[in-house]
Design brief:
The chain has 3 helices and no strands. With 153 residues, it is mainly α. It has one domain. The mean pLDDT is 85.
Length: 153
């Protein structure tokens, strides 16, 4: 029996060593996996930060593009307003209301209809005798005659 016990004891020791080796191997794997898990967490964190930065950059780009588009639209509208105002003879294009050239022209026409007509300047050489008193048709004294008479008295 002692041989049998010795054989069993050796078998047990071999089995214990086998399990110890497997345990060490598993511990090494667990340690390696823990390091890899930590590195994965770091990479995921970096990725999330990069995604957040990319989203913020995209939002800024969209806002900048909208700003440029808005400025271009404002400049185009100002040019259209000025063009219609000049064509229709209005001094201030800001009074026009409408979103299309046709609407702006219609509004300009309505404004022009409400404005009094500006008298035209007299033509040169048609104003008559300038610089002399206008003689009355009868012997009625002119205002200048009355003033001269009053000054003599």
């Amino acid at each position: 029996m002692s041989e049998q016990n010795a054989g069993t004891e050796k078998d047990l020791e071999a089995e214990v060593e086998k399990w110890k080796a497997l345990s060490r191997k598993n511990e090494d794997r667990a340690k390696d996996n823990a390091e890899k898990a930590q590195r994965l967490d770091e990479l995921e964190s970096e990725h999330a930060a990069m995604v957040a930065r990319a989203d913020a950059a995209e939002a800024r780009a969209v806002a900048a593009e909208k700003s440029v588009t808005d400025r271009e639209a404002e400049a185009e509208r100002a040019k259209l307003l000025a063009d219609v105002a000049e064509t229709k003879g209005l001094a201030d294009p800001s009074v026009l209301v409408g979103s299309t050239r046709e609407e702006l022209e219609q509004h300009a026409d309505k404004i022009k209809a409400l404005m009094p007509e500006i008298p035209k300047a007299p033509m040169a050489g048609v104003q008559g005798n300038q610089g002399s008193d206008i003689a009355p048709k009868d012997d009625t004294p002119t205002p200048n005659d009355l003033i001269r008479a009053a000054a003599r008295n």
